Amino acid sequence: MDFFEESDIEKLKASKNIEGLIDSLRFEGKDHNIKKISEALGELRDKRSVTSLIRKLDDEGRPHVRKYIIDALIKIGEPSIELLINSFESVYYENTRKDMAKILGEIGEPAVGPLINALKKVDYNTQKGAIEALEKIGSKKALESMIASLEDEHPYIRMKAAEGLKKIGDKSAVGP
User: Fold this and answer.
1) Cα dist. 137→70, 89, 115, 116, 165 in Å?
2) Which of 2, 64, 86, 127 is the most buried (most CB within 10 A)?
3) Which of 131, 136, 121, 114 is nearest to 90 (CA)?
4) Closest CA to 42 of 92, 99, 103
5) Assign residue 108 a region: left if phi > 0, alpha if psi is -120 to 50, beta otherwise?
6) Which pLDDT score, from 0 to 100, does residue 30 have?
7) Is 59 exposed, middle or buried (CB count within 10 Å of its CB: 0-12, 13-18, 19+)?
8) pLDDT tens-digit profile of 4-14?
9) pTM of the model
10) How far apart are CA 4 and CA 101, in angstroms?
């Protein structure tokens, strides 16, 4: 069932009605409308929409629709960094965590500091997502924290840190 017409979405966007767009995202099922809503939220770059976009991403199984949501979060950029990182431990699906790491990687350098802090968290999924995003960004600022992750209690975190260090370019930290 479609609750919103494209003209309704355009009106919400034109009036910068973030709450209306968030509500429409929550109830909309039609691919084309989800695309339009996601695009509008991305263009408006309002932090209030980030949690709803993450929730929709976690609930959505259709890859092309997931892409609309990912693109919106990338467009929102820096205002979404903390919420994305804090959501690593609460999202249900592993693919959502991977997509969130990809988003943070696309946001790039502004995400490096918060991601370095996330490496210090106890939550395995947060650490894993942070390493994957830092690996994608490739910032040398992350080297010290990535090296520290080589001592983590989780073998997978140690392995991902070693892989990330190789990709970032500090082969001396991981040996031959």
Assistant:
1) 17, 21, 10, 12, 12
2) 127
3) 121
4) 103
5) left
6) 85
7) middle
8) 677 899 999 99
9) 0.82
10) 31
